[in-house]
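Input (structure):
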C-alpha cells in the first residue's frame, strides 16, 4: 500500500480570474479522499464565446473520481464561487456546505435548476467543525465585498491548510464581519502552525494598502449633493455593503432611492431574510421614481460590467421601466472594471455621453474600494500566518508568479500551480505530482456543451466568415432537377463584378452539375464536397472571403 499524501489541485480559478474550483486530497496516491472548494462561473464575451450564457470548469476529472469526494465547501456567494452549483452539482451529488447567507443563494440556484435543496447544508463559523473524511474544516469570517465571506481552515493528518478565498483587511466593512487579527494570530499558532497557505492573488500588483468600505460614504454623499439632475450609480449586485453605502449616501443627500435590476433586488432580499442586513434605507418603485422631480431621485442599478441585458445598458439605449436619462443627469461607476469587460463598459459610457449624461468613474480613488487584499496586505498575511508553503490562487498566471516571488528569501516555499496542476504538499516543499485535463464547459441556453464539442467554434466561424446555403435536387436517374439555388447569410449581396453574389454562385454550381460525371453525381459525399469547393472559390473571387458552406442534396426516389 502506497504512503498517504496531501495534494492540491486547481480545476478553475488558477491562471484566470473567475470560475473558481479547487480540490484538496489526502490518502494513498491516486486514491485520496477529496474535498472541493467552490463551484464558480465566469462570463462570456462576444469575441471568444458568442451566444454563451455562462462558462464553468470542466468536471470530467471530478466526475471520474466522484466516489472519492467527501463534500463541497462554498466560501462565499459571489458568482465566480457559487454560480455553477445548480449546473454542476448533479455531476458530483455530494453534500454542499456554506454559511447561512451563502447557503440561501446556493439554494436559490438549486431551485432554479430543479435540484433538491437539501443538498445544501448550513454550517456556522469557527469553532464549528465539519468533518469530511480525513479533513476537519472550519469557516473563518473575513471581510470582502459580500456578506459572510469566509476563509477555510482545513486540518489534515499532516498539517493545517489555510484557504483564504477572497479577502481584504477591512476592520469597518459596513456590512459583514470585520477582519479580526487576533483570530488569525490564534489560527497561526494552533495545531503546529500553518503548513499550507492557499492565498488570493487578485491585487498583488496594487502597491498601496487596501482601504475600508467605510471611507466611501462621505465622498459619495458630497458627489450626489453637487448634482441637480437624476443621479445613478452602478456596482456589483452582490456587493451588499456598497449598495448600503450608496443608498445611505443618497438618502443623506435628500434623494429617494430606487433599485433597478432583478439580481440586485434578490440579493438585498436574501440579505434581509438571513439577518445580514437590518437597516437598508426604504426604496421606491420605478413608477414612483419616474413621477418625482429628477433632482429628488437616485437610481442604483445593475450592469457595472457592461452586461447587455442589465439595467445600465438598457438605460444607455433608451427608456427602462419608464425611466429615461437626460442631459444634466450623472452616472457613477462605483466598481472596478474586470479585465476583458472594458469594451462593453466604454460602449455604455459613450452612449450615456451622447445623451448628455456626466459619467464618473473611480480614477480618483474616491468612490470604490476593492474587496481583495493589496500587495502590502498580502505581505502582512504571509508574516502573520508564517506558512511552510504558499500556493498563490485566484488570479491570472502573471498574478500567481508575482505572488510566489513575494516570499522568496522568507523561508517560505512557493509553487505556481495553474489549472490542472496537481501539487504534492505532504512535505515542507511542494512537488508537482502530475497534471489532469481541465477546461471549460459552456451553458448555451438550457444545455451544457464542452469547449471542444465544436458548437462555439462553429459559431465563431459563422460570425467571421458568413454562410452560404446550397441546395441541389437530383431526380430518379441521379441527374440535376433544375438549377442549384443559394441563400446567403452575413455576406454582401453583390461582389466586385457588380453581379448578385448568389446569382454568380448559382450559375457556377449549375454549370458544374450539368457536366459532372456519374461517379460524382451518384455519391453524396463527393457531390457535396465539389459544390462546397465551387461556392467558396466564387465567393473568394467576388468578395475576398471564403464563407462557411452548407450543402443539402435531395434525391427523388423512384416508386
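Output (sequence):
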Amino acid at each position: 500500500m502506497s504512503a498517504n499524501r496531501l495534494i492540491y489541485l486547481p480545476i478553475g480559478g488558477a491562471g484566470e480570474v473567475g470560475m473558481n474550483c479547487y480540490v484538496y486530497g489526502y490518502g494513498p496516491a491516486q486514491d485520496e479522499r477529496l474535498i472541493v472548494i467552490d463551484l464558480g462561473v465566469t462570463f462570456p464575451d462576444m469575441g471568444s464565446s458568442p451566444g454563451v450564457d455562462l462558462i464553468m470548469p470542466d468536471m470530467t476529472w471530478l466526475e471520474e473520481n466522484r466516489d472519492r469526494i467527501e463534500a463541497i465547501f462554498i466560501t462565499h456567494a459571489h458568482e465566480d464561487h457559487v454560480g455553477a452549483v445548480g449546473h454542476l452539482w448533479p455531476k458530483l451529488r455530494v453534500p454542499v456546505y456554506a454559511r447561512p447567507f451563502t447557503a440561501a443563494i446556493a439554494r436559490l440556484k438549486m431551485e432554479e435548476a430543479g435540484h433538491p435543496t437539501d443538498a445544501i447544508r448550513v454550517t456556522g463559523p469557527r469553532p464549528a467543525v465539519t468533518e469530511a473524511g480525513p479533513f476537519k474544516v472550519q469557516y473563518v469570517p473575513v471581510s470582502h465585498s459580500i456578506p459572510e465571506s469566509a476563509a477555510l481552515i482545513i486540518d489534515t493528518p499532516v498539517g493545517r491548510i489555510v484557504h483564504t478565498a477572497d479577502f481584504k483587511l477591512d476592520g469597518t466593512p459596513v456590512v459583514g464581519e470585520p477582519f479580526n487579527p487576533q483570530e488569525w494570530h490564534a489560527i497561526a499558532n494552533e495545531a503546529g502552525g500553518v503548513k499550507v497557505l492557499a492565498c488570493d492573488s487578485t491585487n498583488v500588483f496594487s502597491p498601496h494598502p487596501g482601504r475600508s468600505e467605510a471611507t466611501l460614504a462621505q465622498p459619495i454623499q458630497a458627489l450626489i449633493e453637487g448634482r441637480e439632475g437624476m443621479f445613478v450609480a452602478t456596482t456589483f449586485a452582490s456587493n451588499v455593503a456598497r449598495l448600503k453605502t450608496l443608498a445611505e449616501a443618497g438618502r443623506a443627500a435628500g434623494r429617494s432611492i430606487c433599485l433597478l435590476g432583478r439580481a440586485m433586488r434578490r440579493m438585498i432580499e436574501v440579505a434581509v431574510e438571513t439577518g445580514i442586513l437590518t437597516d437598508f434605507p426604504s426604496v421606491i418603485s420605478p413608477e414612483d421614481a419616474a413621477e418625482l422631480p429628477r433632482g429628488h431621485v437616485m437610481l442604483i442599478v445593475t450592469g457595472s460590467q457592461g452586461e447587455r441585458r442589465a439595467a445600465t445598458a438598457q438605460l444607455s439605449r433608451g427608456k427602462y421601466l419608464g425611466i429615461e436619462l437626460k442631459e444634466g443627469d450623472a452616472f457613477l461607476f462605483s466598481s472596478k472594471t474586470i479585465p476583458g469587460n472594458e469594451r462593453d463598459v466604454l460602449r455604455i459610457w459613450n452612449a450615456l455621453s451622447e445623451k448628455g449624461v456626466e459619467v464618473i468613474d473611480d480614477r480618483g480613488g474616491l468612490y470604490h474600494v476593492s474587496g481583495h487584499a493589496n500587495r502590502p496586505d498580502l505581505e502582512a498575511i504571509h508574516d502573520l500566518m508564517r506558512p511552510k508553503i504558499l500556493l498563490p490562487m485566484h488570479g491570472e498566471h502573471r498574478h500567481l508568479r508575482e505572488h510566489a516571488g513575494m516570499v522568496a528569501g522568507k523561508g517560505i516555499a512557493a509553487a505556481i500551480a495553474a489549472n490542472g496542476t496537481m501539487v504534492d504538499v505532504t512535505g515542507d516543499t511542494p512537488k508537482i505530482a502530475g497534471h489532469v485535463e481541465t477546461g471549460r464547459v459552456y451553458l448555451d441556453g438550457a444545455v451544457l456543451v464542452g469547449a471542444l464539442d465544436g458548437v462555439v467554434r462553429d459559431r465563431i466561424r459563422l460570425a467571421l466568415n458568413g454562410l452560404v446555403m446550397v441546395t441541389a435536387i437530383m431526380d430518379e436517374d441521379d441527374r440535376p432537377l433544375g438549377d442549384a439555388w443559394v441563400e446567403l447569410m452575413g455576406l454582401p449581396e453583390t461582389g466586385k463584378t457588380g453581379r448578385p453574389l448568389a446569382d454568380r454562385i448559382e450559375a457556377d454550381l449549375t454549370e458544374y452539375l450539368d457536366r459532372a460525371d456519374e461517379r460524382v453525381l451518384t455519391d453524396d459525399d463527393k457531390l457535396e464536397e465539389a459544390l462546397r469547393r465551387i461556392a467558396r472559390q466564387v465567393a473568394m473571387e467576388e468578395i475576398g472571403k471564403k464563407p462557411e458552406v452548407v450543402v443539402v442534396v435531395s434525391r427523388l426516389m423512384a416508386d
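Notes: The chain has a mean pLDDT of 94. Residues 213-360 form a domain with the Rossmann fold fold (CATH 3.40.50.10710).
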